[in-house]
Amino acid sequence: MSRNPVTYRGKRAFDLAVLVVSSPLTLPIGLATALAIWLTDGTPVLFRQERAGVDGRAFHVLKFRTMSETRGASGELLSDRDRLTKVGRILRQTSLDEVPQLINVLRGEMSIVGPRPLYMRYVPHYTEREKTRLDALPGITGLAQTSGRNAAGWRKRLDFDVQYVERNSLIGDIRICLQTALKAVRSEGVSIIAGESGDPLDVERQHPSQGGLYLRKLYSRDLPLRVKWMTDQRVRRHMSLPENVTLESTNAWYIKIGTNPNRYEFAVEDCEGQVVAMTGLRAQSEGSPAEFYIFVEPDSHGQGIGQIATQLTVAHARNLSSIPSITLTVARANIRAIQIYRKLGFSETRASADRLWMELPVKVDHVHT
Questions:
Q1: SS3 content of the chain, % helix, strand, coil (to 5)
Q2: I need a surface site. Which of 176, 309, 327, 353 has the fewest CB within 10 A?
């Protein structure tokens, strides 16, 4: 059953007023942009894509086309990075590719301010609370965009959307519009290539979760926090870590492992989108045991986060056909960790004066009778 959008009185009037007041600027910019696309990349000038609107109903969002239809030798589309045009890069950096959405606003399909319209395939992956974002018209900009744009994770972004729906007001919309203009001028928080800021929502939420904690891939935005933890003495005393860990060296490490199909790096978030642990699985080759490691947020030691994060990583490994078992090394002095690993099924394979080596099979052969 369709519902009316949740909004304040006068929001439609605000949208129309913004359209009228901005038209002396947006019309010539829009025409000039369309001409630039036509001259350099031909037609079509506009890009239409189905998105979820109010009440989850589908509509077609409009954007200026920023990518070509270039295909490889076998006929498949090239990557977004390879298809992004020179004009398209400029449009995304300045957010001018969003200008045609003013037409969506005029049609009443969108508002100037509201939760960004996301893919229809994301809707089944929303939590009950996150579905509240569908109670309002989607917007060209919103609270999530002025609070971090693409740099924020999905849980934070969707939470900002819900906050907007619950508290939207005329003053709030004016504030968001001003903040958006400032961020657009500075090109802050813009993701030029889709996927650079993280996996799509439907992919991220296929990872296991338990006890209010959620496993996902490690993203580049997590690296400053990783460096902070790796230089914390509370972490270092239980792990063999490189000396002089810096953001520069960690960025280089991140780029390097991105090309290794036998490396799996994860972050574990709580329900508020805060990263509370990082884990990893490192195999020498396909089909060989994977070495496990874990960092827990130093101020959260002793809260059970490490055990759940380990369980989530093991659950993910069980879905990977390439990993037969998980190995780890733990300091003998870390009695709590050893107890947790034994409880999870790890067994000792060898020992030294100060360390234990442990292993957990993740592939179990089932006999059918």
A1: 45, 20, 35
A2: 353
Query: Residue 237 corresponds to which amino acid?
Result: R
Q: Hey, what are 233's tokens?
A: 């003495």
Confirm if 317 and 323 have CB atoms less than 8 A apart. yes
- Return the closest-CA partner of residue 332 out of 349, 353, 302, 312: 353
Residue-level pLDDT, tens digit, the chain, 369 residues? 456 677 899 999 999 999 999 999 999 999 999 999 999 999 999 999 999 999 999 999 999 999 988 888 787 888 788 889 999 999 998 889 999 999 999 999 999 999 999 999 999 999 999 999 999 999 999 999 898 655 678 999 999 999 999 999 999 999 999 999 888 777 666 665 555 678 999 999 999 999 999 999 999 999 999 999 999 998 887 777 888 899 999 999 999 998 999 999 999 999 989 999 999 999 999 899 999 999 999 998 878 999 999 999 999 999 988 899 999 999 898 888 899 999 999 999 999 998 999 999 987 554 433
Q: Among candidates 50, 70, 69, which has minimal Cα distance to 60? A: 50
112 and 177 Cβ atoms separated by less than 8 Å: yes
Please compute Rg for the chain using Cα positions.
24
Q: Which of 8, 73, 63 has its CA nearest to residue 33?
A: 63
Write down the pTM of the prediction.
Answer: 0.85
DSSP 168: -
Which residue do the tokens 């049609």 mark?
107
Please answer whether residues 146 and 183 qualify as being in contact, where contact means their C-beta atoms are separated by less than 8 angstroms: yes
- Between CA 155 and CA 40, with CA 59 as vertex, the angle to 5 degrees is 95
Contact of 155 with 176, CB cutoff 8 Å: no
In terms of C-beta density within 10 A (0-12 exposed, 13-18 middle, 19 or more buried), how is residue 179 classed? middle
| Cα 234 → chain centroid | 29
The span from the CA of 241 to the CA of 339, in Å, is 23
Given a contact cutoff of 8 angstroms between Cβ atoms, the answer to whether 288 and 317 are in contact is no
Distance of CA 69 to the CA centre of its chain: 26
